[in-house]
Here is the input.
Amino acid sequence: MLSKRNNSSHFVGIACAAVLMILAGGCKKSFLDSQPQGQLPATQLYVNAAGAEQGINAIYALDRDFNHTAFPALAIESMGGDEVEKGSTPGDSSPMGLYHTFTQTGDEAGFDDPFWSGQYQSISLANQAIDSIPKINMDASLKARYIAEAKFLRAYSYFRLARAYGDVPLRLHYPKSAADFNIPRTARAQIYAQVEQDLTDAASILPQSYSGADVGRATKGAALSLHAKVAMYQGKWGDVLTYTNAVIALGQYSLFPNFEKSFREENENNPEEIFEIQCPNDASNPAAATSQFSQVQGVAPAAGWGFNIPTPALVAAFEAGDPRLAGTILFAGGTSAEGDAIPTGQVDLMYNYKSYVPFSEPILNGTPGAGQDVRVIRYSDVLLMNAEAANQAGNTTLALASLEKVRARARAGNNTILPPVTTTDKTALQTAIWHERQVELAMESDRFFDVVRQGRAGTVFADRNFKVGKNELQPIPTSEILKSGGLLKQNPGY
Here is the structure.
């Protein structure tokens, strides 16, 4: 069971023994919603179907923690873009700002190593599941599904690592000795090949949808969509078109009618959300309200810390009358659609509306906004990938049609705002699609990577010290290089 109504597990310690913290709760609660009940070695956990479920749930639970969704992730995946800056006061967590000015070195404690190690913790849990579940005597179809979920989640973490760092160590089994942990970097092309294989395997097994307590687990559509994204970063446009067409053909996804409302808690797991990280905020178990994704970006001081804030460049990117501006950015002195007055006189003039949670939500475990799910892949992203791939293939009709679906939702029925794109020139249409990605997916940690893959980073980020041949990749954390005894080599230029 996975959604905000399931039992839960959490991983403790990657470099030592394989130990899982099993979190079990009532059947009506989430796997993210429970108090720790004890510890089990993995060898004792993976003995039956219930243990397999707990092991898989542990990976989902880990993917919402601080290292995966808060400061470390925002620094590595968001700060390099031109749409955000650090926020808060200059001296508050100042190393985060180094990622925005491309002056990070790999020595930024609390940012680089936690993101790196966090992904490998998830990979380790997935490897344990993939190695162990085949040996369990249990229902064959459920066994296959759990393995497919683990492969999807492993692929997601390796995708994040390869996109950010390039070559990274590839580990496909849980290490049996200390020596197994210390392996050299593997070429990014090989990492992506493994990610694609995992996603192919997952898509062949995972169901199209779930019901009840299982809503929120990885689906066939999630595997196909992530596969399309991996292919896009490699410039494999034929594959992008194939996988996005397959997602569209499933017929189960649609754009939520109201852009701003699609990001609110009451509309989580709606038909636009292909995969999102489930985050609970249940008064019956406040200790489980631990996701800080919303808190670190929330309106300061009323509901958060005010980091990862929009930039004037992002405001300027929206066309006149584009309703997505008001659905993406909260302006100090204004009022949210939910009725919250956004205070003035603070250090920030703008905030990320997509991570916003109304101030009236109960604050459990001292964590405002803990119930805000993290959107990973939305249907609008799939449509824009489809448009870009179709344009690359010379299929202008399909490219324009997919682009228009996104713009039609954005214009909210007013045809005088955001007129349809009509150009059939390949270069002009590509520029229009790139712009649409910028405004549609703003503040969702794609902008930096999009500009890099488009070959424009040296120009778009020139005002912030971006160096071509260096800053396309993050530095390998110095702590990891030291722990490896120098086996891990630093990226060029750092």
Notes: Confidence is low (pLDDT under 50) at residues 4-38. The chain is about 40% helix and 10% strand. Residues 140-165 form the longest helix (26 residues). The radius of gyration is 22 Å.
